[in-house]
């Protein structure tokens, strides 16, 4: 988990640019001590944001680098995104 944290403290500038260019905003990752990883991001169009990143070479390279950190995934880590339904929000 320390290595995962380290890599995310040094995300490649071209990866950050690709995320912004494909509509990812307000993106955060949260890592629990037991390894549970929860990500949050906002986008106007989820399908377009995912497709945009899927078409980027930098994303393929990043996902290959991150794959060893994940267990029991079919495909790449970004293909394991499971949208959640908001059940409560406080402004």
Provide the CATH top-level class: Alpha Beta
Low-pLDDT stretches: none
Report strand %. 5-15%
What structural category characterises the helix and strand content?
A: alpha+beta
Element-level helix/strand string: HHEEHH
Strand order of the largest sheet: 1-2
Number of helices: 4
Record field, number of beta strands: 2
The CATH topology is given as Alpha-Beta Plaits
In words, what does this structure look like?
It comes from Prauserella shujinwangii. The protein has 91 residues and is α+β, with helices and mostly antiparallel strands. It has one domain: Alpha-Beta Plaits (2-Layer Sandwich), CATH 3.30.70. Helices cover 40% and strands 14% of the residues. The protein contains four helices and two strands; from the N terminus they run H-H-E-E-H-H. The protein has a two-stranded antiparallel sheet. Strand 1 and strand 2 form a beta hairpin. The chain is globular, with a radius of gyration of 14 Å. It starts with a helix and ends in a 25-residue tail after the last helix.
């Amino acid at each position: 988990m320390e290595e995962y944290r380290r890599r995310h403290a040094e995300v490649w500038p071209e990866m950050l640019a690709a995320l912004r260019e494909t509509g990812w905003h307000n993106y955060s990752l949260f890592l629990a001590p037991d390894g549970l990883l929860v990500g949050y991001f906002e986008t106007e169009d989820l399908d377009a944001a995912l497709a945009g990143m899927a078409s980027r070479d930098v994303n393929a390279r990043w996902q290959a680098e991150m794959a060893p950190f994940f267990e029991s995934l079919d495909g790449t880590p970004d293909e394991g995104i499971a949208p959640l339904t908001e059940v409560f929000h406080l402004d």
